[in-house]
Amino acid sequence: MPKHYLIANWKMNRPPEGADQFVEKVRAAAPDPATTVVIAPPFPFIAQVAASLRGSPVRIGGQSCSTESRGALTGEVSAAMLRDCGATCVLVGHSERRTLFGETNEIVARKLTAVAEASLVPVLCVGESADIRDRGEVVQFLHEQIASAAGSLGDSDEIVLAYEPIWAIGTGRNATPSMIAATVGPIREAVRASWPERMASNLSILYGGSVTPENIDSLWSTGAIDGFLVGGASLDSGRFLSILDGMRDRRVQAGTGS
Ligand code: PGA
User: Fold this and answer.
1) CA 35 to CA 95: how far, in whole Å?
2) CA angle in degrees (0–180, nearest 5) for 37-172-188
3) Closest ligand 1 atom to 7 CA
């Protein structure tokens, strides 16, 4: 059974209330054993956030990592360094990395190998631009992103995939539930076609792109996804925790867990 996740991607931001205050509120909130909560702060805060969360089930994630394990690579951070600072997972191939920093499918694949070698859980981000959607090429595009990752996933049992349409990120325009349902089906097929069977059956697929406490009911109602990757709304502990509450409430209503 795929696990449920809620991931906060702070990007290059600090929560206005302060990182310590944010973490304290998340730590103090009622735990939801059915959802793995992850906070992905900018690199310099990882160790601090990890120290504040010691003993809590909330996990720490990196937002990216180097393709390499060491070397003269000014400004880069290796997956093992993230792990040593307390991270247990890493976002790989976020569309901001792909579009603003030139990360190709090949670079993403090398990063996935680095993440597997450091025994971290990869959160592979895929998603199409508005142009690709308008041209009706979403399925083929996502298939390429997914297939190109196939040989780089190591032997991990825990792999997370985040479907994040680029046109929905930070725009206030989320994908509709029917779009999500119609896209996640082909994503699962692409995974089954190109990844080892064991990974395909455990794979959690998250949605990201303008997720808020106000729209998670309809997004979650598709039944197609296993959680959310949240940017803007993850910078406020109250809004982030109300997404977590919404996931729990929906599950209770559906009779599928606590
Ligand atoms: P957003 O960002 O929630 O601000 O749209 C999501 C993401 O980029 O992961």
Assistant:
1) 24
2) 55
3) 9
Q: 72 alpha carbon to ligand 1 midpoint, in Å?
A: 32
Neighbours of 41 (CB within 10 A): 26
- Listed by start position, the domains of the chain span 4-254
Active site residue 144: no
The catalytic position among 94, 96, 103, 143 is 94
- Report pLDDT digits (tens) over 220-234: 988 999 999 999 999
Residue (of 83, 81, 32) closest to 58 by Cα position: 32
- Give, for ligand 1, the residue of 9, 95, 174, 240 to mutate: max count of ligand atoms closer than 8 Å to Cβ: 9
pLDDT at 3 over 60: yes
Look at residue 258 in the predicted model and tell me its pLDDT: 47
**What's the CA gap between 91 and 78, in Å, rounded?**
13
pTM for this entry: 0.96
Q: What CATH architecture does domain 4-254 belong to?
A: Alpha-Beta Barrel (3.20)
Three-state SS string across the chain, please? CCCEEEEEECCCCCCCCCHHHHHHHHHHCCCCCCEEEEEECCHHHHHHHHHHCCCCCCEEEECCCCCCCCCCCCCCCCHHHHHHCCCCEEEECCHHHHHHCCCCHHHHHHHHHHHHHCCCEEEEEECCCHHHHHCCCHHHHHHHHHHCCHHHCCCCCCCEEEECCHHHCCCCCCCCHHHHHHHHHHHHHHHHHHCCHHHHHHCEEEEECCCCCCCHHHHHCCCCCCEEEECHHHHCHHHHHHHHHHHHHHHHHHCCCC
